[in-house]
Amino acid sequence: MKKLQTALRECSKRKKTETCLEGFESGTIQRLMNDWELWAREDQLPPTDDWTTWLILGGRGAGKTRAGAEWVRSIALKHDAARIALIGETLSDVRSIMIEGVSGLLNVHAAHERPVFEPSKKQITWPNGAIAQIYSAEDPESLRGPQFSHAWCDVVYAVQDEKLIGITEFVFESYEECQKTSAEAKEKMDLHLKPVCYLRWLREGGGNKGNVI
What we know:
The structure is a single chain. The chain has two domains: 1-39, no CATH class; 46-203, 3-Layer(aba) Sandwich (Rossmann fold), CATH 3.40.50.300. The chain is α/β, with parallel strands linked by helices. A seven-stranded mixed beta sheet has the order 1-7-6-2-5-4-3. It is built from nine helices and seven strands. Strand 6 (150-153), helix 8 (161-178) and strand 7 form a beta-alpha-beta unit.
């Protein structure tokens, strides 16, 4: 696995991926291309230790959205009972970046496993029954009530600090409720390099409600 990963990454760097895959059957090529672990950088893969919040710090083009989408994909395909919250600055951002973007959820799935997005319901449904619902940071109160097993929060610093911390508190409240029925309540956050005050709060444990890696 490691040797294959190294070889494929080297081919990718040299922009010779197609040449390197010549001779493989089409089905094998498709499986290789859809295996995120083969292509991802180590910092784009979930921590191996037990964690509650996975924080990704990086600038534009660092691959944060792809990492988030691939993480959600892996959760949804493995857990048919998964209930996932997708939270962005606005509903439009969630749709255009996290769902329909080049590195968004719909594009990281192979055709046979791709979920169905229903904008009118603000919901994504996978063939196995896993569900993701979309929320806006502009309306943190909407996170009250629903229970989630996982959440992907994209660029959460974009709103005012008070609302931002409130959103995180609401999400963690949902986790606490969810943990009554699920042992895998997880949150994955994308974050740019500001603001320092929020990073400090999050790194100190997010109000002592979970480990941060």
